[in-house]
Design a protein that fits this description.
Oligomer: single chain
InterPro entries: CBS_dom (IPR000644), CBS_dom_sf (IPR046342), Cyclic-di-GMP_PDE-like (IPR050706), EAL_dom (IPR001633), EAL_sf (IPR035919), GGDEF_dom (IPR000160), Nucleotide_cyclase (IPR029787), Rev_trsase/Diguanyl_cyclase (IPR043128)
Number of strands: 22
GO molecular function: cyclic-guanylate-specific phosphodiesterase activity
Helix content: 25-40%
Pfam families: CBS, EAL, GGDEF
Structural class: alpha/beta
Shape: flat
Keywords: CBS domain
Strand content: 15-25%
Radius of gyration: 30 Å
Distance between the termini: 52 Å
CATH class of the largest domain: Alpha Beta
Strand order of the largest sheet: 1-2-3-4-5-6-7-8
Protein name: Signaling protein (EAL,CBS,GGDEF domains)
Length: 592
């Protein structure tokens, strides 16, 4: 069929509404729900323009891209409505179409109104695969869509042109990581580092991450352990005319199998290197070491299980003698391997592994540790890299700890909150703040004020550390506690115990005259004398809903609101907030 004939066919498909969508689910595997579907357009079965690559390539050549894009959006929304679908509708959009002067403005909003789909249900995916001709105009177009209420996603992040730049400028609601970084991620430390970096950046920018192209259970499990919630790929559902409505139970990762912090487990320093069968001839293994000078050891596997490890110095020692080749060349490597290597599960904490190394006097810093997953070989971890990571974590924790109390600071607090949200488990956050602390400092001085802060830290530690709860020091007189695996009544009881300890001893930080008066006189902000009661402890407690609180930022807003309620009283008070999500801030576009 000639090019002109194909163009006529394309026009006919558009005008006769013969294009139809297939829907691929986007799932939140942590909560076990389908959050939406991506619409993938198709032409009639068996037609030369059935598949999107040919369809959009021809439309671009024939300058019909705008017409095709609108036809696709219309077909997707119509099917979404007919199927009574819930959640988000992800629509792929060529970014250059949004900048096309001939592209009719307001058409997407009119279509959403026509089919009764709220703009906030629609996610416009801007693919990074297309070379963007005019980023300035694209930015204006995207801001226009955001003002209308549509959500924005950057698709195929990492595939090419300007994803990170768009991300920083547009602040999208979603980023979708290109499938290249997902394929066999459990076998690639480089891909894991890339995805972990994107997750960290997304947390800071309050963006949701969707990973595409998940095809194997191993890929899914690796991503789940790393804290990825939103998943898409053939494993979870192939594109189909009718939507997938629920997540199969087989795809859900049991909560007990989720690492508390991927970055602090041995999995974070694993390298997947070549392994050899236990039956491999020793001469072949010698050749492998000879050809690769960087190789220091090789795991030896038998029926997917770890049989042992062969180290460079060991095999060189065996073959160095006059009769080495004659004695060992044809023997299986199992004959000369170390049958009892140091081996740990992939979710073992770095601290535990460090202790194992410390307790073993024969371990060499340049050796490798075998890492297994469900008793099957997963990779190796260099002891040198392990110690380097532990040092990094300790330095990082020390850098961010509060210098006055040595309690963890904001970085650790945020990390713990993110972990709890990703596990979708019930937890409570208590925000502690002193009432009238500034006037106390004005009268008694900052050194005495610091003594009170350290004393309050000791009270919190005494009451909470023994129960395994987390305590962090935000700064000044502000503290945070995170209560895990206890109910509301138990949380409130422990907070009230803290208040009783505080009330019992606070007077020792005052002169008798102020104790007799029940407070102090100090200047207010406008310079007028004001009477301030004795210091009180305000505690605002919240139970965040992981489905509504997207990150530690939302939890911080929620806890701050609860603390403000607690501070309405002059004295000490524990306020148990019933709300589980914060009041949303008004979105401000980059132009404002």
């Amino acid at each position: 069929m000639s090019g002109s004939d194909l163009t006529k066919e394309l026009l006919s498909l558009i005008q006769d509404k013969q294009l139809y969508p297939l829907f691929q689910p986007v799932m939140d595997t942590s909560r076990g729900i389908v959050i939406g579907h991506e619409a993938l357009i198709r032409g009639p079965k068996g037609h030369p323009l059935e598949f999107p690559d040919r369809l959009f390539s021809l439309a671009s050549q024939a300058q019909l891209l705008s017409e095709l894009e609108l036809a696709c959006r219309s077909a997707a929304m119509e099917a979404f409505q007919k199927n009574a679908m819930q959640g988000k509708l992800f629509l792929n959009v060529n970014p250059n179409v949004l900048q096309d002067d001939s592209h009719p403005h307001g058409s997407t909003l009119r279509l959403s109104q026509q089919f009764g789909i709220a703009p906030e249900q629609i996610v416009i995916e801007i693919s990074e695969r297309y070379p963007i001709e005019d980023t300035k105009n694209l930015k204006h177009a995207i801001i226009h869509y955001q003002k209308l209420g549509f959500m924005i996603a950057i698709d195929d992040l990492g595939a090419g042109y300007s994803g990170l730049k768009l991300w920083s400028e547009l602040r999208p609601d979603y980023v979708k990581i290109d499938r290249y970084f997902i394929h066999s991620i459990e076998k690639s430390s480089v891909k894991r580092e890339f995805v972990q970096s994107i997750l960290s950046l997304a947390t800071s920018l309050r963006t949701k991450v969707v990973v595409e192209g998940i095809e194997t259970p191993d890929e899914l499990e690796q991503l789940q352990v790393m804290g990825v919630n939103y998943c898409q790929g053939f494993l979870l559902g192939r594109p189909a005319p009718y939507p997938v409505l629920e997540v199969p139970s087989s795809l859900l990762l049991p909560h007990h199998h989720v690492a508390l912090n991927y970055q602090s487990t041995i999995a974070s320093v694993v390298d997947t290197i070549h392994c050899v069968s236990a039956h491999t001839r020793s001469s072949e293994v010698l050749d492998t070491f000879t050809q690769d000078k960087t190789l220091s050891s090789l795991p030896v596997i038998h029926e997917k299980k770890v049989a042992g490890i062969i180290r460079r110095e060991k095999i060189m020692e065996f073959f160095s003698g006059s009769y080495g080749h004659a004695l060992y060349a044809n023997k299986p490597v199992s004959y000369i391997m170390d049958e009892h290597p140091l081996s740990v599960d992939w979710q073992t904490s770095l601290e535990e592994v460090s202790q194992l190394i410390t307790d073993n006097d024969e371990v060499d810093i340049y050796q490798h540790i075998i890492v297994t997953k469900s008793d099957v070989y997963y990779g190796v971890a260099s002891i040198k890299n392990l110690l380097r990571r532990i040092t990094e974590l300790k330095v990082n924790n020390a850098r961010h700890a509060n210098p006055l109390t040595q309690l963890p600071g904001n970085v650790a607090i945020n990390q713990i909150i993110e972990e709890q949200l990703s596990r979708v488990r019930s937890f409570h956050v208590a925000y502690f703040d002193l009432n009238h602390f500034k006037p106390y400092n004005d009268i008694y001085g900052y050194e005495q004020g610091d003594q009170i802060i350290k004393w309050l830290a000791q009270i919190l530690q005494k009451q909470l550390f023994r129960h395994g709860h987390f305590i962090g020091h935000i700064g000044g007189d502000d503290f945070v506690a995170i209560f895990k695996d206890i109910d509301k009544e138990q949380t409130e009881e422990q907070c009230n115990k803290i208040i009783r300890d505080f009330e019992q001893d606070i007077t020792r930080f005052y002169h008798q005259e102020h104790i007799d008066l029940g407070g102090i006189k100090a200047l207010s902000r406008n310079g007028t004398p004001v009477f301030y009661p004795l210091l009180g402890l305000a505690i605002g407690v919240v139970q965040p809903d992981p489905s509504e609180c997207l990150s530690h930022h939302d939890v911080a807003l929620l806890a701050s609101e609860a603390k403000k309620e607690a501070k309405q009283s002059d004295g000490s008070r524990c306020y148990m907030c019933h709300r589980q999500k914060p009041r949303r801030l008004r979105q401000i576009s980059p132009q404002q």
